[in-house]
Protein backbone atom coordinates (compact mmCIF):
# COMPACT_ATOMS: atom_id res chain seq x y z
CA UNK A 1 0.00 0.00 0.00
CA UNK A 2 1.35 3.43 -0.95
CA UNK A 3 1.60 6.37 1.40
CA UNK A 4 -1.39 8.02 -0.18
CA UNK A 5 -3.46 4.90 0.34
CA UNK A 6 -2.49 4.72 3.99
CA UNK A 7 -3.81 8.25 4.41
CA UNK A 8 -7.11 7.60 2.67
CA UNK A 9 -8.17 4.05 1.97
CA UNK A 10 -11.57 5.18 0.77
CA UNK A 11 -12.94 8.61 0.07
CA UNK A 12 -15.32 8.47 3.04
CA UNK A 13 -12.42 8.10 5.50
CA UNK A 14 -10.12 10.68 3.90
CA UNK A 15 -7.97 12.60 6.41
CA UNK A 16 -7.50 16.23 5.24
CA UNK A 17 -4.83 16.99 7.87
CA UNK A 18 -2.51 14.25 6.64
CA UNK A 19 -3.12 14.84 2.93
CA UNK A 20 -0.41 17.51 2.36
CA UNK A 21 2.30 15.26 3.76
CA UNK A 22 1.14 12.34 1.62
CA UNK A 23 1.03 14.52 -1.47
CA UNK A 24 4.56 15.75 -0.76
CA UNK A 25 5.85 12.18 -0.46
CA UNK A 26 4.04 11.12 -3.65
CA UNK A 27 5.39 14.19 -5.42
CA UNK A 28 8.94 13.16 -4.50
CA UNK A 29 8.33 9.73 -6.03
CA UNK A 30 6.84 11.34 -9.13
CA UNK A 31 9.96 13.48 -9.60
CA UNK A 32 12.12 10.34 -9.66
CA UNK A 33 9.80 8.35 -11.95
CA UNK A 34 10.97 6.77 -15.18
CA UNK A 35 14.25 5.18 -16.12
CA UNK A 36 14.93 1.53 -16.84
CA UNK A 37 11.42 0.27 -16.16
CA UNK A 38 9.80 2.56 -18.72
CA UNK A 39 12.51 1.89 -21.29
CA UNK A 40 12.11 -1.86 -20.78
CA UNK A 41 8.36 -1.55 -21.33
CA UNK A 42 8.93 0.42 -24.52
CA UNK A 43 11.43 -2.17 -25.76
CA UNK A 44 9.11 -5.12 -25.05
CA UNK A 45 6.15 -3.39 -26.71
CA UNK A 46 8.34 -2.56 -29.71
CA UNK A 47 9.51 -6.18 -30.08
CA UNK A 48 5.94 -7.51 -29.89
CA UNK A 49 4.85 -4.93 -32.45
CA UNK A 50 7.57 -6.08 -34.86
CA UNK A 51 6.52 -9.72 -34.35
CA UNK A 52 2.94 -8.75 -35.12
CA UNK A 53 4.05 -6.99 -38.32
CA UNK A 54 5.96 -10.12 -39.38
CA UNK A 55 2.88 -12.27 -38.81
CA UNK A 56 0.78 -9.77 -40.72
CA UNK A 57 3.26 -10.11 -43.58
CA UNK A 58 2.74 -13.87 -43.47
CA UNK A 59 -1.00 -13.28 -43.59
CA UNK A 60 -0.58 -11.01 -46.61
CA UNK A 61 1.50 -13.58 -48.51
CA UNK A 62 -0.78 -16.52 -47.73
CA UNK A 63 -4.09 -14.70 -47.90
CA UNK A 64 -6.99 -14.41 -45.49
CA UNK A 65 -7.66 -18.13 -45.92
CA UNK A 66 -5.08 -18.66 -43.16
CA UNK A 67 -7.52 -17.15 -40.69
CA UNK A 68 -10.63 -18.89 -39.40
CA UNK A 69 -12.88 -16.39 -41.17
CA UNK A 70 -14.95 -17.68 -44.06
CA UNK A 71 -17.76 -16.54 -46.36
CA UNK A 72 -20.48 -17.22 -43.79
CA UNK A 73 -18.54 -15.58 -40.94
CA UNK A 74 -16.49 -12.94 -42.72
CA UNK A 75 -15.65 -10.88 -39.62
CA UNK A 76 -13.73 -12.23 -36.66
CA UNK A 77 -11.19 -11.32 -34.01
CA UNK A 78 -9.94 -8.22 -35.84
CA UNK A 79 -13.35 -6.54 -36.04
CA UNK A 80 -14.19 -7.67 -32.50
CA UNK A 81 -11.05 -5.94 -31.22
CA UNK A 82 -11.80 -2.94 -33.42
CA UNK A 83 -15.14 -2.49 -31.68
CA UNK A 84 -13.52 -3.03 -28.30
CA UNK A 85 -10.73 -0.49 -28.79
CA UNK A 86 -13.07 2.11 -30.23
CA UNK A 87 -14.96 1.80 -26.94
CA UNK A 88 -11.79 2.17 -24.91
CA UNK A 89 -10.83 5.28 -26.85
CA UNK A 90 -14.23 6.93 -26.70
CA UNK A 91 -14.61 6.27 -22.99
CA UNK A 92 -11.22 7.76 -22.16
CA UNK A 93 -11.91 10.93 -24.14
CA UNK A 94 -15.37 11.33 -22.61
CA UNK A 95 -13.97 11.05 -19.09
CA UNK A 96 -11.43 13.73 -19.95
CA UNK A 97 -13.69 16.15 -21.83
CA UNK A 98 -16.88 16.10 -19.72
CA UNK A 99 -15.45 18.02 -16.70
CA UNK A 100 -14.02 20.76 -18.94
CA UNK A 101 -17.03 20.91 -21.25
CA UNK A 102 -19.52 21.39 -18.41
CA UNK A 103 -17.26 23.25 -15.99
CA UNK A 104 -17.43 20.62 -13.24
CA UNK A 105 -14.79 19.19 -10.95
CA UNK A 106 -12.31 16.84 -12.64
CA UNK A 107 -10.56 13.70 -11.47
CA UNK A 108 -7.29 14.83 -9.95
CA UNK A 109 -5.25 15.82 -12.98
CA UNK A 110 -5.54 12.61 -15.00
CA UNK A 111 -7.14 14.35 -17.97
CA UNK A 112 -4.09 14.33 -20.26
CA UNK A 113 -3.26 10.72 -19.36
CA UNK A 114 -6.85 9.74 -20.25
CA UNK A 115 -6.58 11.49 -23.62
CA UNK A 116 -3.24 9.76 -24.29
CA UNK A 117 -4.85 6.39 -23.57
CA UNK A 118 -7.65 7.37 -25.96
CA UNK A 119 -5.13 8.18 -28.70
CA UNK A 120 -3.33 4.85 -28.19
CA UNK A 121 -6.63 2.93 -28.29
CA UNK A 122 -7.67 4.75 -31.47
CA UNK A 123 -4.37 3.79 -33.14
CA UNK A 124 -5.10 0.16 -32.26
CA UNK A 125 -8.67 0.42 -33.62
CA UNK A 126 -7.38 1.77 -36.94
CA UNK A 127 -4.71 -0.92 -36.97
CA UNK A 128 -7.31 -3.67 -36.66
CA UNK A 129 -9.25 -2.23 -39.60
CA UNK A 130 -6.09 -2.24 -41.72
CA UNK A 131 -5.16 -5.86 -40.96
CA UNK A 132 -8.76 -6.95 -41.60
CA UNK A 133 -8.80 -5.39 -45.08
CA UNK A 134 -6.51 -8.11 -46.39
CA UNK A 135 -3.82 -5.95 -48.01
CA UNK A 136 -2.55 -2.37 -47.62
CA UNK A 137 -3.60 -1.38 -51.15
CA UNK A 138 -7.23 -1.65 -50.10
CA UNK A 139 -6.71 1.27 -47.72
CA UNK A 140 -6.04 3.45 -50.77
CA UNK A 141 -8.98 1.90 -52.66
CA UNK A 142 -11.20 2.62 -49.67
CA UNK A 143 -10.75 6.35 -50.25
CA UNK A 144 -10.24 6.33 -54.01
CA UNK A 145 -13.48 4.42 -54.67
CA UNK A 146 -15.37 5.24 -51.49
CA UNK A 147 -19.13 4.93 -51.20
CA UNK A 148 -20.27 7.77 -48.97
CA UNK A 149 -23.65 6.10 -48.58
CA UNK A 150 -22.05 3.18 -46.70
CA UNK A 151 -21.88 3.16 -42.87
CA UNK A 152 -18.43 1.57 -43.23
CA UNK A 153 -17.19 4.73 -44.95
CA UNK A 154 -18.86 6.90 -42.33
CA UNK A 155 -16.92 5.03 -39.67
CA UNK A 156 -13.58 5.42 -41.48
CA UNK A 157 -14.10 9.17 -41.83
CA UNK A 158 -15.27 9.66 -38.25
CA UNK A 159 -12.46 7.50 -36.86
CA UNK A 160 -9.77 9.46 -38.73
CA UNK A 161 -11.35 12.73 -37.60
CA UNK A 162 -11.52 11.39 -34.07
CA UNK A 163 -7.80 10.57 -33.97
CA UNK A 164 -6.87 14.02 -35.28
CA UNK A 165 -9.23 15.69 -32.82
CA UNK A 166 -7.86 13.67 -29.89
CA UNK A 167 -4.31 14.78 -30.73
CA UNK A 168 -5.51 18.38 -31.08
CA UNK A 169 -7.33 18.16 -27.75
CA UNK A 170 -4.20 16.88 -26.00
CA UNK A 171 -2.15 19.66 -27.59
CA UNK A 172 -4.74 22.24 -26.45
CA UNK A 173 -4.57 20.99 -22.87
CA UNK A 174 -0.77 21.24 -22.84
CA UNK A 175 -0.89 24.73 -24.32
CA UNK A 176 -3.62 25.79 -21.89
CA UNK A 177 -1.42 24.84 -18.94
CA UNK A 178 1.32 27.01 -20.46
CA UNK A 179 -1.13 29.92 -20.77
CA UNK A 180 -1.16 29.79 -24.59
CA UNK A 181 -4.80 28.65 -24.98
CA UNK A 182 -7.69 30.38 -23.24
CA UNK A 183 -10.11 28.62 -20.93
CA UNK A 184 -12.97 29.39 -23.32
CA UNK A 185 -11.15 27.90 -26.31
CA UNK A 186 -10.30 24.75 -24.33
CA UNK A 187 -13.93 24.40 -23.29
CA UNK A 188 -15.09 24.68 -26.91
CA UNK A 189 -12.59 22.00 -27.97
CA UNK A 190 -13.80 19.83 -25.07
CA UNK A 191 -17.40 20.08 -26.27
CA UNK A 192 -16.39 19.17 -29.84
CA UNK A 193 -14.31 16.25 -28.54
CA UNK A 194 -17.24 15.01 -26.46
CA UNK A 195 -19.63 15.12 -29.41
CA UNK A 196 -17.11 13.35 -31.66
CA UNK A 197 -16.50 10.66 -29.02
CA UNK A 198 -20.22 9.87 -28.88
CA UNK A 199 -20.54 10.06 -32.67
CA UNK A 200 -17.68 7.67 -33.45
CA UNK A 201 -19.25 4.94 -31.36
CA UNK A 202 -22.73 5.58 -32.71
CA UNK A 203 -21.47 5.25 -36.29
CA UNK A 204 -19.66 2.02 -35.38
CA UNK A 205 -22.91 0.68 -33.96
CA UNK A 206 -24.79 1.59 -37.14
CA UNK A 207 -22.45 -0.61 -39.17
CA UNK A 208 -24.06 -3.55 -37.38
CA UNK A 209 -27.50 -2.12 -36.55
CA UNK A 210 -28.36 -1.40 -40.19
CA UNK A 211 -27.75 -5.03 -41.24
CA UNK A 212 -31.34 -6.20 -41.53
CA UNK A 213 -30.35 -9.77 -42.31
CA UNK A 214 -28.71 -10.31 -38.89
CA UNK A 215 -31.14 -10.85 -36.03
CA UNK A 216 -28.45 -10.22 -33.42
CA UNK A 217 -27.50 -6.81 -34.86
CA UNK A 218 -30.64 -5.22 -36.25
CA UNK A 219 -31.85 -3.08 -33.34
CA UNK A 220 -32.15 0.68 -32.80
CA UNK A 221 -30.83 0.20 -29.26
CA UNK A 222 -27.36 -0.68 -30.53
CA UNK A 223 -26.02 2.91 -30.74
CA UNK A 224 -26.83 3.95 -27.13
CA UNK A 225 -25.73 0.49 -26.02
CA UNK A 226 -22.35 0.99 -27.69
CA UNK A 227 -21.96 4.40 -26.02
CA UNK A 228 -22.78 2.98 -22.57
CA UNK A 229 -20.31 0.14 -23.14
CA UNK A 230 -17.66 2.68 -24.15
CA UNK A 231 -18.21 4.56 -20.91
CA UNK A 232 -17.82 1.34 -18.92
CA UNK A 233 -14.60 0.07 -20.49
CA UNK A 234 -13.15 3.55 -20.98
CA UNK A 235 -13.64 4.46 -17.33
CA UNK A 236 -12.30 1.08 -16.26
CA UNK A 237 -9.19 1.60 -18.39
CA UNK A 238 -8.59 5.08 -16.94
CA UNK A 239 -8.86 3.72 -13.37
CA UNK A 240 -6.36 0.93 -14.10
CA UNK A 241 -3.94 3.31 -15.82
CA UNK A 242 -4.23 5.95 -13.09
CA UNK A 243 -3.66 3.39 -10.33
CA UNK A 244 -0.67 1.92 -12.15
CA UNK A 245 0.90 5.33 -12.76
CA UNK A 246 0.38 6.31 -9.15
CA UNK A 247 1.99 3.07 -8.06
CA UNK A 248 4.93 3.80 -10.36
CA UNK A 249 5.23 7.33 -8.99
CA UNK A 250 4.16 9.15 -12.15
CA UNK A 251 1.00 10.70 -10.62
CA UNK A 252 0.38 11.99 -7.10
CA UNK A 253 -3.29 10.98 -7.13
CA UNK A 254 -5.48 10.94 -4.05
CA UNK A 255 -7.54 7.86 -3.30
CA UNK A 256 -10.64 10.04 -3.21
CA UNK A 257 -10.24 10.72 -6.92
CA UNK A 258 -10.13 7.00 -7.73
CA UNK A 259 -13.19 6.49 -5.53
CA UNK A 260 -15.08 9.16 -7.52
CA UNK A 261 -14.15 7.43 -10.76
CA UNK A 262 -15.26 4.12 -9.26
CA UNK A 263 -18.71 5.52 -8.42
CA UNK A 264 -18.97 6.73 -12.00
CA UNK A 265 -17.94 3.30 -13.28
CA UNK A 266 -20.59 1.63 -11.12
CA UNK A 267 -23.27 3.90 -12.56
CA UNK A 268 -22.15 3.19 -16.13
CA UNK A 269 -22.15 -0.58 -15.47
CA UNK A 270 -25.72 -0.46 -14.16
CA UNK A 271 -26.92 1.54 -17.18
CA UNK A 272 -25.19 -0.87 -19.55
CA UNK A 273 -26.79 -3.87 -17.86
CA UNK A 274 -30.16 -2.11 -18.10
CA UNK A 275 -29.78 -1.68 -21.85
CA UNK A 276 -28.75 -5.32 -22.13
CA UNK A 277 -31.83 -6.41 -20.17
CA UNK A 278 -34.11 -4.30 -22.37
CA UNK A 279 -32.71 -5.88 -25.50
CA UNK A 280 -33.02 -9.41 -24.10
CA UNK A 281 -36.64 -8.82 -23.02
CA UNK A 282 -37.56 -7.53 -26.46
CA UNK A 283 -35.91 -10.50 -28.15
CA UNK A 284 -37.28 -13.14 -25.78
CA UNK A 285 -40.88 -11.95 -25.57
CA UNK A 286 -43.22 -14.84 -26.55
CA UNK A 287 -43.92 -14.86 -30.24
CA UNK A 288 -40.87 -12.79 -31.10
CA UNK A 289 -38.44 -13.88 -33.78
CA UNK A 290 -35.44 -13.24 -31.54
CA UNK A 291 -36.09 -16.08 -29.10
CA UNK A 292 -33.34 -18.08 -30.78
CA UNK A 293 -30.91 -15.25 -30.01
CA UNK A 294 -31.67 -15.37 -26.29
CA UNK A 295 -31.44 -19.16 -26.20
CA UNK A 296 -28.07 -18.98 -27.97
CA UNK A 297 -26.79 -16.52 -25.34
CA UNK A 298 -28.27 -18.08 -22.22
CA UNK A 299 -27.67 -21.77 -22.90
CA UNK A 300 -26.08 -22.05 -26.33
CA UNK A 301 -22.53 -21.78 -27.69
CA UNK A 302 -22.12 -18.18 -26.46
CA UNK A 303 -23.34 -18.86 -22.91
CA UNK A 304 -19.83 -18.60 -21.34
CA UNK A 305 -19.44 -15.09 -22.74
CA UNK A 306 -22.98 -14.08 -21.75
CA UNK A 307 -22.77 -15.24 -18.16
CA UNK A 308 -19.18 -14.06 -17.93
CA UNK A 309 -20.33 -10.55 -18.83
CA UNK A 310 -23.19 -10.60 -16.33
CA UNK A 311 -21.10 -11.93 -13.43
CA UNK A 312 -18.19 -9.58 -14.12
CA UNK A 313 -20.47 -6.53 -14.37
CA UNK A 314 -22.31 -7.37 -11.14
CA UNK A 315 -19.04 -7.95 -9.30
CA UNK A 316 -17.65 -4.64 -10.57
CA UNK A 317 -20.79 -2.76 -9.52
CA UNK A 318 -20.71 -4.26 -6.01
CA UNK A 319 -17.12 -3.12 -5.48
CA UNK A 320 -17.79 0.35 -6.90
CA UNK A 321 -20.86 0.97 -4.74
CA UNK A 322 -19.52 -0.44 -1.46
CA UNK A 323 -17.33 2.13 0.38
CA UNK A 324 -15.48 -0.48 2.45
CA UNK A 325 -14.43 -2.29 -0.75
CA UNK A 326 -13.05 0.76 -2.54
CA UNK A 327 -9.39 -0.01 -1.89
CA UNK A 328 -6.95 0.30 -4.77
CA UNK A 329 -6.45 -3.44 -5.42
CA UNK A 330 -10.20 -4.10 -5.48
CA UNK A 331 -10.90 -1.03 -7.62
CA UNK A 332 -8.32 -2.17 -10.17
CA UNK A 333 -9.79 -5.68 -10.11
CA UNK A 334 -13.32 -4.30 -10.54
CA UNK A 335 -12.18 -2.05 -13.41
CA UNK A 336 -10.43 -4.94 -15.15
CA UNK A 337 -13.57 -7.05 -14.68
CA UNK A 338 -15.70 -4.32 -16.28
CA UNK A 339 -13.32 -4.05 -19.25
CA UNK A 340 -13.31 -7.84 -19.69
CA UNK A 341 -17.12 -7.88 -19.48
CA UNK A 342 -17.35 -5.45 -22.40
CA UNK A 343 -14.94 -7.62 -24.38
CA UNK A 344 -17.28 -10.57 -23.73
CA UNK A 345 -20.14 -8.44 -25.02
CA UNK A 346 -18.23 -7.66 -28.21
CA UNK A 347 -17.65 -11.38 -28.79
CA UNK A 348 -21.33 -12.09 -28.26
CA UNK A 349 -22.35 -9.39 -30.68
CA UNK A 350 -20.04 -10.22 -33.55
CA UNK A 351 -20.00 -14.02 -33.35
CA UNK A 352 -23.70 -14.07 -32.46
CA UNK A 353 -24.50 -12.23 -35.67
CA UNK A 354 -23.00 -15.09 -37.67
CA UNK A 355 -24.06 -17.89 -35.31
CA UNK A 356 -27.61 -17.84 -36.67
CA UNK A 357 -27.57 -18.52 -40.44
CA UNK A 358 -29.34 -15.83 -42.45
CA UNK A 359 -29.96 -18.21 -45.38
CA UNK A 360 -31.56 -21.65 -45.24
CA UNK A 361 -29.68 -22.78 -48.37
CA UNK A 362 -26.26 -21.17 -48.15
CA UNK A 363 -24.77 -22.99 -51.10
CA UNK A 364 -21.99 -25.58 -51.31
CA UNK A 365 -20.19 -26.42 -48.07
CA UNK A 366 -16.46 -26.05 -48.70
CA UNK A 367 -13.40 -25.01 -46.66
CA UNK A 368 -13.84 -21.49 -48.09
CA UNK A 369 -17.46 -21.07 -47.00
CA UNK A 370 -17.66 -22.63 -43.52
CA UNK A 371 -14.94 -23.08 -40.91
CA UNK A 372 -16.05 -26.55 -39.72
CA UNK A 373 -17.16 -27.66 -43.15
CA UNK A 374 -16.45 -31.40 -42.78
CA UNK A 375 -19.64 -32.08 -40.81
CA UNK A 376 -21.95 -30.05 -43.02
CA UNK A 377 -24.11 -27.06 -42.10
CA UNK A 378 -25.73 -28.73 -39.09
CA UNK A 379 -22.38 -29.64 -37.59
CA UNK A 380 -20.84 -26.27 -38.39
CA UNK A 381 -23.51 -24.41 -36.44
CA UNK A 382 -23.69 -26.91 -33.59
CA UNK A 383 -20.86 -25.20 -31.70
CA UNK A 384 -19.31 -21.77 -32.14
CA UNK A 385 -19.23 -21.00 -35.83
CA UNK A 386 -15.96 -19.08 -35.47
CA UNK A 387 -12.84 -19.23 -33.31
CA UNK A 388 -9.63 -17.32 -34.18
CA UNK A 389 -6.71 -19.09 -35.84
CA UNK A 390 -3.22 -18.84 -34.26
CA UNK A 391 -2.07 -16.27 -36.82
CA UNK A 392 -4.98 -14.03 -35.86
CA UNK A 393 -3.95 -14.15 -32.20
CA UNK A 394 -0.40 -13.19 -33.15
CA UNK A 395 -1.41 -10.26 -35.35
CA UNK A 396 -3.86 -9.12 -32.67
CA UNK A 397 -1.11 -9.17 -30.02
CA UNK A 398 1.07 -7.07 -32.31
CA UNK A 399 -1.62 -4.40 -32.76
CA UNK A 400 -2.28 -4.27 -29.01
CA UNK A 401 1.47 -3.94 -28.43
CA UNK A 402 1.49 -1.02 -30.87
CA UNK A 403 -1.13 0.74 -28.75
CA UNK A 404 0.92 0.12 -25.60
CA UNK A 405 4.02 1.41 -27.37
CA UNK A 406 2.25 4.64 -28.38
CA UNK A 407 1.02 5.15 -24.81
CA UNK A 408 4.43 4.53 -23.21
CA UNK A 409 6.16 6.83 -25.69
CA UNK A 410 3.61 9.49 -24.79
CA UNK A 411 4.44 9.07 -21.10
CA UNK A 412 8.16 9.35 -21.85
CA UNK A 413 8.21 12.32 -24.19
CA UNK A 414 5.01 14.33 -23.58
CA UNK A 415 4.16 16.51 -20.55
CA UNK A 416 1.18 14.46 -19.39
CA UNK A 417 1.46 15.26 -15.69
CA UNK A 418 -0.77 18.06 -14.38
CA UNK A 419 0.99 21.39 -14.02
CA UNK A 420 0.70 21.37 -10.22
CA UNK A 421 2.91 18.25 -10.05
Examine the coordinates and then state which fold CATH places here, giving the name of the CATH topology: Formate dehydrogenase/DMSO reductase fold
CATH level-4 homologous superfamily: Formate dehydrogenase/DMSO reductase domain
Count of domains: 1
Cα distance spanning the termini = 21 Å
**With helices defined by DSSP (H or I, 4 residues minimum), what is the helix count?**
15
Structural class: mainly alpha
Main sheet summary: none
Strand content: under 5%
Q: Using the 3D structure, state the CATH architecture.
A: Up-down Bundle
The tally of beta strands, per DSSP, is 0
What is the C-level CATH assignment?
Mainly Alpha
Gross geometry: globular
Mean pLDDT: 84
One letter per element, helices H and strands E, the order comes to HHHHHHHHHHHHHHH
Helicity level, as a percent range?
over 70%
Q: Radius of gyration, Cα only, in angstroms? A: 22 Å
Ranges with pLDDT <50 over ≥5 residues?
1-16
Topology:
Elements: H1 3-7, H2 19-31, H3 36-62, H4 77-102, H5 111-132, H6 137-144, H7 151-177, H8 183-209, H9 222-248, H10 255-284, H11 291-299, H12 303-321, H13 328-355, H14 376-380, H15 390-413
Helix pairs in contact: 3-15, 4-5, 4-8, 4-9, 4-13, 5-7, 5-9, 5-15, 7-8, 8-9, 9-10, 9-13, 10-12, 10-13, 11-12, 12-13
Amino acid sequence: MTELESVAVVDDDFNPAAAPKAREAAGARAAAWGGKGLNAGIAIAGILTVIGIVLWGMQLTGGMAQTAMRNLDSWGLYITMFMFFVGLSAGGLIISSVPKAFGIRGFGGISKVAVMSSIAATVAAIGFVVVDLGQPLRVWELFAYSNLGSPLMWDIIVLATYLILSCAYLWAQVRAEAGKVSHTALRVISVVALVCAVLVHSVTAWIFGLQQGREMWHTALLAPWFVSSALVCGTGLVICVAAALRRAGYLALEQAQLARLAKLLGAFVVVDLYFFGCDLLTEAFPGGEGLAVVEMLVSGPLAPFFWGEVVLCVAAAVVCFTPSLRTTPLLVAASAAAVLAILCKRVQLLVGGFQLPSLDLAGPVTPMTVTSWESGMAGAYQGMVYWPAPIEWGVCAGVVALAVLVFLLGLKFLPLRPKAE
